[in-house]
Amino acid sequence: MDRPPPEHAPPGDPQLALPPRAPDPVAPGFPWLAAIAPLAGAAVLWAVTGSALSLAFAALGPLVAVASVVDARRQGRRARRRGAAERAALLAELRSAVADRHAGERAARWRRVTSAREIVDGARPLDWRAGPPGRVVLGHGTVASGVRVDGVPADDHDRALLRAAGALDDAPVVASLAGGIGVVGIEPVADALARALVVQVTHGGRPDEVGIAVPAGEAWGWSTPLPHRSGPTALRVVGRSERDATTTPSAPTDADGVATIAVADAAEHLPPGLETLVRVEDHRRAVIERRGEAAGPTRIVPDLVGAVEASEWADRVRAMAERERWGPESGVPARIAFDALEQPASDDGSRTTLRAVVGQSALGPLALDLVEHGPHAIVAGTTGSGKSEFLVAWLAALATCHPPDRVSFLLVDFKGGAAFEPLRGLPHVTGIVTDLDEAEAERAVLSLRAELRHREAVLLAEGERDLAALPDRVVLPRLVLVVDEYQAMIDRFPDLGPVVADVAARGRSLGVHLVLASQRPNGVVREQVSANCAIRVSLRVRQRADSVAVVGTDAAAAIRPDTPGRGVVDAGDGCPVVFQSAMVDPGTLERLRRSTSDMAAARRPWVDPLPARVAQSALIRLVRAATPARDAEETERGPALDFGILDDPERQRHVPATWTPESDGHLLILGEPGSGRSTALAALAEAATAIRVDVRRLVRPASARWDTLRALVEDDRRTTTSCLLLVDDLDVAFRDWPDDHRIAAVGMLERLLREGRERGLGIAASAGSTHRLPAGLRESFGSTVLLRHPTRTDLAQAGGSAALWRSGDPPGSGQWRERRLQVVDVPSLPSDPGAEARPLRVGTAAVTAVVSMRPRADAATLRGLGHEPVLLEPGLDAVARAAIAAGGGAGHPLVIVGDADAWTANWTLTALVREEAAIVVHGGSREFRVFAAGSALPPLLDDPVAQCWLAPPGGEPMRCAWPVHVDN
User: Fold this and answer.
1) Phi and psi at residue 862, in whole multiples of 5°?
2) Domain with CATH 3.40.50.300 in the chain
3) What's in the keyword line of the UniProt record (predicted)?
4) Annotated binding site for ATP
5) What is the DSSP string of 335-397?
6) Annotated binding site
7) How far apart are CA 441 and CA 366, in angstroms?
């Protein structure tokens, strides 16, 4: 028996060792000195004191000495028990470590061999290599283990542990074929073991390299289908009928490398010179004897294979061999033109097949059918293997055999975009998307869910569960989604993985088929996807594991680099076969385009991305298409304002971007400068005007904004219906205003935001950022439109979806309700000239009091207009000024000019003229407060120098234009 070398502990694992035995404590001696010393002390005391009582101390010495001896022995026994317990725990840990290493060693040994049971059960694919295997598995039993435990055993328990560590149970027991193997025992079980050995040899040897010679007769009839008959004989089986030793072959060493497996009833009937002898007692017991082995027989559980299961396995091997996939003489051509292939006859009315010939194998033309054997396919192949050319050939064959109303293609190329360009122009091609436009690729794949819903709706309407059962009048072609470099697509868009998995799960009945191509699909294509990919194609790959993972054999890793298009395909029947892909030249594709040019193009499964500019007419068409549903909604939600178009790829459509103030709340439009905020407000104004909604605006100049706010606030006593207020640049709208007016304006706007919806007032405002907005304003908006932002991070911080951010978005592009938005392109709103300031008329009242920041200059201005103003000084006698004021009523209007300090100092004069004089304020809020009563604010001035306030006697202040200075 061939014994493999011992397996040592993996690097890094500590060496196992027996724990040392605790040493026995030293037996304590009798403490003579401690016993004698008290006697001497007692004698001295008696001699000094003469007291007989001192002699009693003499007894303490022996008593203490005996107690010390007893205590020492007790401590020794305790130490021995503690040492024994600690060693027992260490031994238990050692046994556990030995068991763990045995498990690893056992698994490693089984991985290196292949038992006949695994072969016939299909757990191991065929592994045809050049040359026969050197060793075969006879069964499983106990073999020498590579686990070593150092240390000297202390007792029988230690010796038992060392024996257990050195023996590995349930391990494969192997033997070398080189010296020959003899099997002795009753016919059923001995023949079963011999069959197991032959199965292992034919499983591991290529038919053109390993030939077998078996006895004639029914017992070995199961091996007839095996293809291992044409190669040079490497194994000879000697049966029970060949009992004459002179006619049977001698030891294999005399037969030029031909191994021998002999079966007999007794050892004396075997050929001489066999190195290994297996005595099979029953199906659970066998004994192995090896010539010259001193260790003696080894007991095993034999590895047996029944005749029926061996016959079934041989039939499967024959099916594989008929494809002649193992050798260069397989009959597969080195190159084949697409025009040389004969495609199956086209059945225009059939929905039950997508059969197409894509190349040629040793057995003839190779046809693939996504409907019959799919529904999906995986294609592997390294750079230069011809993977893209194979995909083009497959699609060209499908287009040749099936019209576009029966099959359509959606092609995704993530390696530059050139792979599928030759197919552009075919009516079957609904679109070619590439990694050069990643957004387009993402929306195309995301739209597949909408396509699945569409197909489900069609099937539901027809009362069918499968696309193949639809009547001919229903136009719903099968959709083949081909992704070249699937791994690159998933790396760039991980969220598309669940979409592909959804298509893989539901695609069969809905007629959606996946063809996923990648250099290394293993580990990239998810298990729930690959489980539905029955068609497997592997062109040349670099690693054996990649070939095995795709087609169940390593044959694709052995393909030469100079044979592009050569590959291994499992067409869905579980039998891989070598083939050569057809090559499609440009002339063939041009003829195919001409022959299909009169066919109607297939329906596109996704909608185009939003345009950079949306015309008003395009929006009107969308609105009209949604009018029936919209009319019903508006009766409950109030009027709706359409201001752009939303992209809805998951439903394969564009829809109007609609804001309904009654239900959506006030609208805030955020975006960087130039992003189209003003255009969005103009679009809302256009929509509101079209449905007769009153539109108000807070636009420059400041006076107009103030007057509009005041008018809307003061209108709260009346019922305002369908009014829209537009505020542009809300974050900076009141930035340069005086403090009093700014605070009042923010308060009025907060009130309108809070109470507006109850009065039928909707507010739409734009801003560059929410950070500059007061909290009261920021939190009062119920909806937000996010236009272009400088960075993805800025957009995410504003509450938008970072996935929808695109660099270089055109003006008006953004997102609304987590959908991409393009605002309708309408003319900008005209600028507001602002509130007109009436000319200042001085002298209409008997007395005019002018409060000015520059009293002397303003007095000169009034003097230039023909008035005789009196300049008020802070120290002027108030009574005299009262007399002057009283004298001004005789038909000569009196104009008094002073600054705030002068009027405040002459408080008696101020009180006198407050009720009867016309008050003119040329300055700011400080000047206005001289005569103002209460907290009411005057109208806001656009220019405090060119404008002023005029309050007639007993009237409200009004905005007036300050006269221009005229020099005499």
Assistant:
1) -65, -35
2) 113-134+177-322, 336-595, 634-823
3) ATP-binding, Membrane, Nucleotide-binding, Transmembrane, Transmembrane helix
4) 381-388
5) -EEGGGS-PPPP-TT--S--EEEEEEETTEEEEEETTTT-S-EEEE--TTSSHHHHHHHHHHH
6) 381-388
7) 32
The CATH topology of domain 634-823 is Rossmann fold (3.40.50)
CA atoms within 13 A on the CB side of 878: 12
The pLDDT-based confidence of 685 (bands split at 50, 70, 90) is: very high
Q: How far apart are CA 440 and CA 452, in angstroms?
A: 19
Contact 557, 543 (CB under 8 A): yes
User: Are the beta carbons of 514 and 486 closer than 8 angstroms?
Assistant: no
Domain 336-595 falls in which CATH fold?
Answer: Rossmann fold (3.40.50)
Pairwise CA distance, residues 740 & 320, whole Å: 93
**Which residue(s) pair with 580 in the sheet?**
360, 566
Contacts of 786 (CB under 8 A, 6+ apart): 670, 671, 795, 798, 799, 800, 814, 815, 816
Query: CA-to-CA distance for 274 and 779, rounded, in angstroms?
Result: 94
Strand boundaries in 883-964, DSSP class E: 894-898, 918-922, 947-951, 958-961
Give the integer Cα–Cα distance in Å for 666 and 156. Answer: 90
Measure the CA angle with vertex 11, ends 5 and 17; round to 5°. 80
Question: Which architecture does CATH list for 113-134+177-322?
Answer: 3-Layer(aba) Sandwich (3.40)
CA atoms of 689 and 696, how far apart (whole Å):
11
- Phi, psi (5° rounding) for residue 177? -75, -20
State which amino acid sits at residue 432.
I
Each residue's pLDDT tens digit, 61-89: 677 767 776 767 777 777 778 877 887 88
**pLDDT band, very low/low/confident/very high, at 701 (cuts 50, 70, 90):** confident
**183-197 confidence digits (pLDDT tens):** 999 888 999 999 999
Cα(305)–Cα(309) distance, integer angstroms: 7
Query: In whole angstroms, what is the distance from residue 871 CA to residue 580 CA?
Result: 109
Res. 584: pLDDT tops 60: yes
What backbone torsions phi and psi does residue 482 show, to the nearest 5 degrees? Answer: -110, 125
800-847 pLDDT, tens digit each = 888 788 888 899 999 999 888 999 998 887 766 666 788 888 878 888
Residues 195-230 have pLDDT tens digits of 999 998 888 777 767 888 888 777 888 888 888 765
Radius of gyration of the chain (CA): 51
State the alpha helices, DSSP H only, in 552-641.
586-595, 616-625, 627-637
